[in-house]
Each structure stands twice: as C-alpha cells, then as structure tokens.
Specification:
The complex is a heterodimer. Chain A is mostly helical. Chain A contains 13 helices and no strands. Chain B is built from nine helices and ten strands. Classes of the chains: A mainly alpha, B alpha/beta.
Chain lengths: 261, 245
C-alpha cells in the first residue's frame, strides 16, 4: 500500500530535482544541441552524397533523439555512481520519511524527465537542417508522446540499474564502453529492424532480445507511421517489460549497494 | 518502564567483520547521550542504524515502546539526522535547503518560512541564505547540516561527529548550539572521538571499543569512580585495560 505521507515527500524530492534541472536550462539546451546538429548534417548531406538514401538524414533525426535521451539519462546516472563512492548525498533522502523503494522510483522518474525534456529540441534541429526532407506528415502525437516517455523511462531504469551494478564511476564507464555504448548503436540506430533482419535473420532475431530496438522502432512509428517497422504496441509492451525487469533487479542492487532499510 | 529510545541486542556484520556486537543501550528523553570511541569503534555504524539508514544484522531499535521497523515513516518524521560529511544538493541555496527540508516533512509553507528564518538567525546563517553551501566554511556547513535536521522540530537528533576536523573556536560555537538543543528538550545522540567534547556536552557517555560497549555512565560519575580528574584519563585507562586483556 502506498503511504500518502511518503508519496507526498517523494513528490517534493522529485520537484527539487526538477527545479534544479530547470534552473540550469540554458546549459541543458546547449547539451542537447551540438551532437544532433553535427550528426544530422553529416547523415543528411554528407552520407547521401556518398551513396546513402536521400531520406537517411530524416531517419537519423529519430536515432539522435533516442540516443541523446539515453545519453542524458546515462550522464545523470554517472553523477549517481560518483555519489555512491563519494559524499553519498543519497543518504539524506534515505533518512527522510519514505521508503528506499520510493527513493529508487523517484530516481528513475527524475532520469526519465531529464532524458525527455530538452532532447525534443532534436526534432526542431532536424526540421531546420533538413527542411522538407524531414516531414511531420505521418506524426501521431499520442503515439509519439506515449512511446517517447516510456522509452525515456526505460533509459532511466537502465541507467540506475547500471550505476547500482557498477557501484563507482570507473566500473560505470566500463559498463558504458563494453555494453551500453555498443548496444545503443547497434540496436536500431543505423537501420530499422526489417533492414537488419533482411541482412541477417539471426541478427534480426537477436535484436528482438534487446530493449533498444523497441525504443528506436516505437519512436520512429510515432514520427513516420507504422509501415516498415515492428508493431507499435509490441514496442510499447516490450519496453514496459524491460522497465519492469531492470527496475526490479536495479532495486535489488540499489538496496544491496547502499545497505538501506 | 519504556524508554524514549531503546537499542536492543544490536549486532552488525560486514562479511567476516563484526562491526557491532550485541549492543544494548537506553536513551532517555531530553538527554544528550554521547557515543565515544576511537576511530573504528562502531560509533557511526551504531548511529546509522539508529537513524534507520542501515539495517542491523540482528537486534531491534525501539522508539517510544515500538520497534522502529514496524512504522519506519512515523519514526523518521520525529528524527533529525546530521551525517558526518555534508551531503547537500548541488544548485540549491542555503535557504532553499532549509525550505525543502520543511517540505519533505509536509509542513505548511507559512510555518516553514517562519521556522527557516528562526533557524537562519539561530545558526548565524542569515548572511549566506541566498548562497550555495559549497562556499561555506566547514563550521558553517556543519551549522547548516544541523539546522536542516531541525527544521521539522524532531524530538530526536543524531549528530555524527559534528565537529570533526573543525578549528577549536568553531567547535566551541557548535557546542553552544548542541547545548541549546537540550535546552529546547530535543534528545541528542552525539558521536564523537573528542573526549573534551563528550565531557562538556554529555548527560551520559557510552564508551564503545571494537564494536562493544565498555561502559555507560555520567562523565562526573566516571571520573569519580576511576578517581581521575578528567574524562580523557578515564578513557585512556579503559583503552589500556582493553589492550592489556
């Protein structure tokens, strides 16, 4: 049963984190700006000049949106990993009148919020750079917002799981270099699932075991429509499943790492 | 008789290391109880368990007749915890830290503002209200930590080595603040390895050594029963006895 008092305390903690994030809005927008500009330019103009399809830049806009969201959550988790081995400021929250589960849930929502908010500027950057080549004709507001928020929540749950698994910044960087980074790029960043499946059915099937493919595909459906991608509701359901799995195991690691009550 | 706070048979094991060994201790309402011991004696582990920050391996903490683990949230609403190291959120000002502390305990905004102004004044933090805690000196950071722990008027406050690594005159200023807490009927659990601090501040002292309680008594009674003129000599004798055994 959710304790009303604890719920309100959790909301105040969340509001504090949101307030801190918004306080630094200028830097957060700049952080969301440079990578997408460079990569959309490269994929929208340079690669097509080298033989890639003309609409590849448009495809990469969504890749950039997803990867920026995941990197933002990852970056927030990096601070968290530093806190594990440093000042342990999380300890303050763990003595407030709420459970450690509420603190953990608050962190996931906080990471998801950070991931989601300013990175949508990627869509505007895509429009400015690519013009009519990046079309909103098939844009489905409800589907886009729903899957985008769920994908960001997944990135939040994955990032806190990785931070709790690593326990310090050095190990966290290793998780990024060895696992998260390669998976972010290979699982749908450069090509749709059907393209990967056509290339190699084995690789295609393996991709279905990873959560990132559903994030990329789901958000692309919200932007470009269903045709050519995995089923939208399958993407939503699989992301929810992965959020549950990473949250449950992450919570176990979080409790073990912090030895909290 | 039910004590204000009762630590019952607490043990804490980290792998093969036993940090606390069946500790039992009663704390009375309104007193300053000091956990005194050398580094590694188990003071921070015990205070962290009482603060419900970490769980014991075995044993119980009973607050006003009830295990704190039966209703952790109720216990935490009456607790203020001041950790050894500052743990402030980057980006908030001194005043915002205090205001949010009130929010976490669901105080109404008007009451929070009154309380925060009172604490800023009491802890001499007014000049820094709009500043980041990062620019504060060690002594002022400790003041802010204590003020933050007091916003919601807790009945129990745990101060984990609040004066460690501070200049002597700053330590004395903090002592006055701690004495004021007792004056306001707040029960204080203080951990320290400064013996002069324990002697000046404590109603009772609990001497910890290697995770066990050596003795619990008032500083005055300890000095008379050991026939020593100060608590430091008592402490040294106790530690020597431990080494001789």
């Amino acid at each position: 049963m959710v304790n009303s008092r604890a719920f309100q305390t959790t909301c105040w903690l969340l509001w504090r984190d949101v307030k801190l994030f918004l306080k630094d809005w200028y830097n957060n927008i700049l952080d969301a700006f440079f990578w997408p500009v460079v990569l959309i330019l490269a994929n929208g103009y340079i690669l097509p000049a080298m033989g890639m399809p003309e609409d590849y830049g448009s495809f990469i806009v969504i890749s950039m949106l997803i990867i920026m969201a995941s990197f933002t959550a990852w970056s927030a988790a990096n601070e968290f990993a530093a806190d594990f081995e440093g000042s342990k400021s999380i300890g303050y929250e763990l003595t407030l009148p709420l459970s450690y589960k509420a603190v953990f849930a608050k962190i996931i929502i906080q990471f998801a919020f950070k991931a989601a908010l300013f990175n949508v500027v990627t869509l505007a950057i895509g429009k400015v750079i690519l013009g009519n080549a990046f079309s909103f004709a098939q844009f489905h507001t409800f589907k886009f917002i729903l899957v985008y928020l769920i994908a960001c929540t997944f990135f939040g749950s994955f990032a806190i799981w990785a931070a709790a698994l690593a326990g310090n910044v050095k190990n966290f960087m290793r998780v990024e270099l060895r696992l998260a980074g390669p998976l972010f790029f290979i699982c749908g960043y450069q090509a749709s699932w059907y393209t990967l499946y056509a290339l190699s059915p084995t690789i295609g099937k393996l991709m279905l075991l990873t959560p990132w493919i559903y994030a990329y595909e789901g958000v692309r459906i919200g932007m470009f429509g269903q045709e050519g991608y995995l089923n939208y509701w399958l993407c939503v359901a699989m992301l929810m499943l992965f959020i549950s799995l990473f949250s449950m195991h992450g919570l176990y690691l979080f409790k073990k790492r912090l030895d909290c009550v | 008789m039910s004590h204000f706070l009762s630590i019952q048979q607490i043990s804490k094991q980290y792998g093969s290391h036993r940090a606390l060994d069946t500790i039992s201790l009663d704390i009375n309402s309104g007193e300053i109880m000091t956990l005194l011991g050398a580094n590694g004696a188990g003071k921070t582990t015990l205070s962290s368990i009482i603060a419900s920050l970490i769980p014991p391996t075995s044993g119980d903490v009973v607050y006003k007749g009830q295990s704190i683990y039966n209703d952790l949230i109720r216990f935490r609403t009456e607790l203020g915890f001041c950790p050894q190291k500052p743990n402030f959120a980057d980006g908030l000002t001194v005043k915002e830290h205090l205001i949010f502390a009130g929010r976490y305990y669901l105080m109404d905004y008007k009451t929070i503002l009154e309380r925060v102004d009172q604490l800023l004044d009491q802890f001499d933090l007014g000049a820094y209200a709009g500043k980041s805690p990062a620019i504060l000196s060690g002594g002022y950071k400790q003041r802010l930590l204590i003020a933050r722990a007091l916003v919601h008027n807790p009945s129990l406050i745990i101060l984990d080595e609040p004066t460690v690594a501070l200049d002597p005159h700053i330590r004395h200023q903090l002592w006055e603040i701690i004495k004021q807490l007792k004056h306001n009927n707040v029960t204080v659990l203080l951990t320290t390895h400064y013996i002069d601090e324990a002697e000046v501040l404590s109603d009772r002292v609990c001497v910890l050594d290697k995770g066990s309680i050596k003795l619990i008594d008032t500083p005055a009674h300890l000095m008379s029963s050991f026939n020593k003129s100060n608590l430091e000599e008592v402490f040294l004798q106790l530690m020597n006895e431990g080494t001789d055994e």
